[in-house]
Amino acid sequence: MGQALGRLLRERGESIAAIASRRPERAALAAAFVGGTAQPATYAELPQHAARILIAVPDDAIGPVARLLADAGMHHGTALHTSGAHGPEALAPLAAAGVACGTLHPLQTVANPAEDVRVLPGVAFAIDGAPEAVAWARQLVALLDGLPLNIPGPSRPLYHAAAVMASNYLTALISTAVMLMNEAGVGEAAARLALAPLAHTSVENAFRLGPSAALTGPIARGDADTVRGHLAALAKAPAAVVGLYRAAGLATLEIARRRGLAEVEGGAIEELLRQGERCD
Ligand SMILES: NC(=O)c1ccc[n+]([C@@H]2O[C@H](COP(=O)([O-])OP(=O)(O)OC[C@H]3O[C@@H](n4cnc5c(N)ncnc54)[C@H](OP(=O)(O)O)[C@@H]3O)[C@@H](O)[C@H]2O)c1
Fold first, then answer.
1. Which atom of ligand 1 is nearest to the CA of 60?
2. What residue's CA is closest to ligand 1, atom 14?
3. Burial class (CB within 10 angstroms; exposed 0-12, middle 13-18, buried 19+) of 131
4. What are phi and psi of 80, to 5 degrees?
5. What distance lies between CA 232 and its chain's CA centroid?
């Protein structure tokens, strides 16, 4: 995330003074990737290079890195971290030293820097923190053509749970669907190919039309017999798979009911989906 943001921000006019890593060779590679005048550095050297620092390290490392920077003499300026799970308080050692601290969480999933450069512009960024930190975060979001979201501390866990559901849990749903296709005799690669258009169109429709208008399938039609058939076929599936089918089915039923599914049909499906809850 740090390399991708650094490269994009540099390309869009922000001056990047230095890139830090725990290992010099990685700092050199990252600085080369970011380009421009970015210099490789150690964390302890960073305060000599810049008064505004963006920290993109694993969540557990944010506190130790903040401590390192404070101990290295960062006693003014601004620091942001890119975690969605933690607030500005993760930077407490820097705040105590006099640094304006905040968060800038990109609401996007990124797997490697080269890819990130393509998928980050225009996404939403959750922002929180001290006024100077928020002001800098807003400048960075504007450079990235992003959408700033003000997410105050008490709302952060809900915001982050939403992000996890839209990203990681979608991955888990797709992985489970591929697994069931495998069980039905379709090989892994073919299953991915076969499910991709269906999944892409469903996601696209859910966002473009809204969930109510986008929903199709047996629960939307009130077809309890099909749901019964699925559950019978899943009888020997791992508990996590059956639990996911039932939980996602109940959430689907809520959408179907909102758009007018008759209660007699909705009730029958709910009973089927909840039967397992009682047995489990
Ligand atoms: N990836 C995403 O999809 C995503 C999305 C939104 C937000 N974020 C947030 O962005 C931050 C970074 O995520 P990431 O996916 O880029 O993480 P990452 O690739 O796992 O780690 C980033 C870099 O942190 C350094 N690092 C690792 N452990 C460290 C430690 N104990 N102390 C100091 N530095 C350490 C490593 O660089 P060196 O080995 O070179 O030191 C590593 O390349 C996290 O807060 C994450 O929540 C990530």
1. 31
2. 1
3. exposed
4. -125, 145
5. 34
Record the tokens describing residue 159, joined without a space. 């915001």
Contact 43, 68 (CB under 8 A): yes
Q: Counting atoms of ligand 1 from 1, which one is nearest the CA of 109?
A: 3
Q: How far apart are CA 135 and CA 130, in angstroms?
A: 9
What is the pTM (predicted TM-score) of this model? 0.90
| Residues near 40 by beta carbon (within 8 Å), at least 6 away in sequence | 18, 19, 20, 21, 24, 27, 28, 30, 31
What's the rounded Cα separation, in Å, for the pair 83 and 59? 6
What is the CA(147)–ligand 1 centre distance, in A?
A: 23
Distances in Å between the Cα of 98 and the Cα atoms of 70, 75, 129, 144 are 9, 5, 14, 28
Angle between helices 24-34 and 2-11 (to 10 degrees): 30
For residue 88, the 8-state DSSP code is G
Which residues have any ligand 1 atom within 6 Å of their CB?
1-2, 21-23, 26, 56-59, 61, 64-65, 82-84, 105-106, 109-110
The string of pLDDT tens digits covering residues 186-240 is: 999 999 999 999 999 999 999 999 999 999 999 999 999 999 999 999 999 999 9
Distance (Å) from CA 146 to ligand 1 centroid? 21
In terms of residues, how long is the chain? 280
Q: What pLDDT shows up at residue 113? A: 78
Which tokens go with 133?
A: 């930190």
Q: Where are the alpha helices (DSSP H) in the chain?
A: 2-11, 24-34, 46-49, 59-71, 92-97, 113-119, 131-143, 156-164, 170-183, 188-209, 211-214, 218-221, 224-233, 239-258, 263-279
